[in-house]
Amino acid sequence: MGNILIKNIYRCGKRGDVLICQNKIAKIAESIELKENLSRDCEVIDGTGKALIPGFANMHTHAAMTLMRGAEEDSKLKHWLKSIWALEAKLDEELVYYGTKLACIEMIKSGTTLFNDQYFFTRAAVKAAEEIGIRSWHSQVFLDLGNNMAAMKQRENCIAEYEISRGWGELNNFEVAIHAPYTVTKENIIWAKEFAAKNNLKIHIHIAETDHERLDSLRKFKCTPTQYLNELGFYGPNIIAAHCVWLDENDIQTLGKNRVTVVHNINSNLKLSSGYKFKFRELADAGANLCIGTDGVASSNNLDMLEAMKTTALVQKAWRKDPSAMPLAELLAAGSENGYKAFDLNGGKIEEGALADLCIIDIDNIYFTPNINFNANLIYSAHSDCVESVICNGNIVMRNREIKGEKEVIENVRKLYKKLFIK
Amino acid sequence: MGNILIKNIYRCGKRGDVLICQNKIAKIAESIELKENLSRDCEVIDGTGKALIPGFANMHTHAAMTLMRGAEEDSKLKHWLKSIWALEAKLDEELVYYGTKLACIEMIKSGTTLFNDQYFFTRAAVKAAEEIGIRSWHSQVFLDLGNNMAAMKQRENCIAEYEISRGWGELNNFEVAIHAPYTVTKENIIWAKEFAAKNNLKIHIHIAETDHERLDSLRKFKCTPTQYLNELGFYGPNIIAAHCVWLDENDIQTLGKNRVTVVHNINSNLKLSSGYKFKFRELADAGANLCIGTDGVASSNNLDMLEAMKTTALVQKAWRKDPSAMPLAELLAAGSENGYKAFDLNGGKIEEGALADLCIIDIDNIYFTPNINFNANLIYSAHSDCVESVICNGNIVMRNREIKGEKEVIENVRKLYKKLFIK
């Protein structure tokens, strides 16, 4: 980690220079001259024909599911689940390592500098993320299906994994994960919540993804999934809740009042027909922290945050019958800054003092021609291939679309994924 | 136009060779050896690590609207229309030439080999398309708003333009365009229909784009826009109808029975909040020819057919609550072959005898890793930047993502578009 001076780059509507010292944005000005004491250890990047944007925060994914890209298509949800679970039963350390590494490379290449993972073989995933140099959160997942033995084992694993996580790299972090209110016992949810509180950890959970889940909860618990957790005293600003597609007004107020981070995963929700009338506006107005995720590649097929942002906006405008729904600035904050906020980080924005998690965008192409509205061009016109270089925590992790080891990871995944399909 | 032999390329699930002679696919086989009489005039392309797919048919666009990319964002429809119409009033030959040329380059770069344009300054648009070497249909647009003088002038222009079109290049074709049933007088619609029938021309029209249009029609004509045209004896297989979002069962049967080509433009429909419950399945079952378009860049922001296909499928799956809705094979046919069918062409497919309108896709990357389901990877995972080279009518119009003149067109559009904003 040295210092980087980016000269003459377009950002937030004007051109200028940006100086990165260590892992933070040190100075933003029309022109910055290198001082003698800095110039020895400073890389200078010419930003002409380029723009600087914050890195994206992919706030809900199952990274190693890259191994299952396209494995189950155009099939009904029940069949899809059965098929994917059968593949997951065959996962091992090596597969998760390469699957996560492919995911990290894909995320960096599409401008993501932070991701929130929920998967298995955590140590293998962390190793992959650490090698790529991407900021990440990983967890030991609670998923006991009412089995007490499994529940106890998962508590042990959680404690052990948390201890191990103290040795992880600076960018890789531990959180508690609860699969969903309907797959984990009440006792285990309470235990996990208390463990997280005691150790100042976030909790990553799926809530109200499908109408089926909502109806089941109404039958079984006489309340919505959101209220079921509320009655356990579950909510607070440390909760990161993925999906939340099926909420009533009371649920929205509960999540808002408790400053919960809610992660919208539109491409997955559309593709699996889970629902799309996500209450972005209402949740934000109620006080929730709105973020965007891609979900896993088995359902979303890629990990592209620009695509996720575009689809989010298009679908909000459509179902609300209001083309002014989902203004660009709010959409971009949901894709970057709000994700950093969820983890109490000053990042996902271009400001002095913020973390240097940044993307250099090539704007010398068709998709930014003309460049009347840069944000609209970025979200609605361009593809993530316009991401030319990526800086994460002050390190250049991709330079001119090159990431060290990419070829080897692709080759290994192409060989190894076949293990999932051995009968 | 010479001959091209593509060796060892992946297509439809297997590897093999494809020989193009003149403007057609001459032979497809596991291995093709060059004969002496052919080898002098034959380019050989190594297809290793690549796939061959048919070029896409963008069946509804207003090409030169690239000039207005991002010009009006996040605003209500009424304001959007006012703003875009004000810009269009300032168009001239030079602007349409460069705007269309940028569009043609963007379409080729994203794998489109045929487009159906409806815009102004036709000759300038045709010149641009001819220079790029893309297959295209252009028209003189009827849009009289009930003004008899304008209607007469447009008939004259239509006749004159049709005469001129006989001198256009082999790939560039004339059709009749009617803006919409609510913007053209009944007499003019009938005249245009008869002119098209007499000269064996297609008719390109917008029908039932918004609920507002449907309600207006019910008030004014006591029937839907679709039935209003039906009562004029309008329909037949030469009609290419864009949008058709607001149809009832009777409308669906009318369009199906008459073998109308219906063009779905989902990204524009979502962004302008026009509606999204498009009856793809029902229209196809009734007998209509289902195609996909991007609409103009002022609403859709880009001309990316892969994106249009992806969003089409996601939204069909979502609003129908059925993840098996919109199978990949049907989606790809709508994006390629059906467009060629609409113009009575044997193209948009990889078969001996079909037109050589083809894309070579780079599959040696993350988005095709693993490659369990090539079509799913193409539509749902990859971006159109994976299009490496494009062949149109047997000519290589893009080679390794390079198109002659791209830089100059970008520079000119960046200068010239400002003319639209001069008060």
Oligomer: homodimer
**What fraction of residues of chain A sit in β-strands?**
15-25%
Number of helices of chain A: 17
Averaged pLDDT of chain A: 96
List keywords for this structure.
homodimer, 423 residues, alpha/beta, Urease, subunit C, domain 1, TIM Barrel, 2 domains, eight-stranded parallel sheet, 17 helices, 39% helix, 22% strand
Provide a brief overview of the structure:
2 copies of one chain form a homodimer. By secondary structure, chain A is an alpha/beta fold. The first copy, chain A, is built from 17 helices and 16 strands.
Secondary-structure blueprint of this entry?
The structure is a homodimer of 423-residue chains.
Chain A: E1 3-11, E2 14-21, E3 24-29, H1 36-39, E4 42-46, E5 50-54, E6 56-61, H2 77-88, H3 93-109, E7 112-117, H4 122-132, E8 135-142, H5 148-165, E9 172-178, H6 186-198, E10 203-207, H7 211-221, H8 225-231, E11 239-243, H9 249-257, E12 261-264, H10 266-271, H11 280-286, E13 289-292, H12 297-300, H13 305-319, H14 328-335, H15 337-342, E14 358-362, H16 374-381, E15 387-392, E16 395-398, H17 406-416
Parallel strand pairs in A: 1-4, 6-7, 7-8, 8-9, 9-10, 10-11, 11-12, 12-13
Antiparallel strand pairs in A: 1-2, 2-3, 5-14, 14-15, 15-16
